[in-house]
Amino acid sequence: MLDIPRGCDRLGVYSGLIYQPVFLAMVMVSIAVNPWFNLSKDALSDLGSSQANYPWIFNLSLIVSGAIGLVFSQRVLLKLNSPLNHLGIVMIAATLLFIAVGIFPEDAPVYVYSSMTIHKFFTLLGFILGSLVVVAYEVYWTIKRDWRHIGVPLLLFSLLVPTAYFLNREYVSLALIELAFGFAILMWSYSTVYYYMRMRGADAPAQG
User: Fold this and answer.
1) pLDDT value of position 125
2) pLDDT the model gives residue 204
3) Cα separation of 178 and 39, whole Å?
4) Residues 128-166: pLDDT tens digits?
5) What percent of the chain is modeled with pLDDT above 70?
6) What is the DSSP string of 91-122?
7) Can you spell out the DSSP letters for 11-78?
8) What is the mean pLDDT of the chain?
9) Sequence-separated (6 or more) residues with CB below 8 Å from residue 133
């Protein structure tokens, strides 16, 4: 049983611990039932198209994990004892966008403008907003001396992901970048839960 300090929102903590593993686990199941899928060539969104076997698995992974992630954002991120707690609103927006990606799969014939589908638009905007929140927290932890040992490696990994893609587009697929982003979110979420429990534990009144 996880030792959650007094003053912490237990539902928020557990939501932060499970929402990303739920997404990654369902993606692995979707890959397993689609033997044609190639990690070195395809994008994860291909698993949610009408051409995939059981596309609902991938699309549902975004909706279910997103719903759990909303609980985490609302009950933990918005209540963090840090100057960045208002970024929880931005993460809520990013999470809603990824839920929308699950509702409007890759080949949904809905366009924002020209050849830009609503699926691509929501995906791109969700990645941008989510990345901004994650990097902002990692920079903040890097600046704080007591949290530098967590902030520095997380920040380096987060910056490595887009750098690897832009320098090696010919060899690094979107699927690999998306999975790397998923693991970056996973590590950030766990670090955020740990930070939240440490801060709330320090603020909680001592038991007498």
Assistant:
1) 95
2) 52
3) 10
4) 999 999 999 999 999 999 999 999 999 999 988 888 777
5) 96
6) HHHHHHHHHHHHHS-TT---EEETTEEHHHHH
7) HHHHHHHHHHHHHHHHHHHHHHT-TT--TTT--GGGGGSTTSSSHHHHHHHHHHHHHHHHHHHHHTGG
8) 90
9) 87, 90, 91, 94
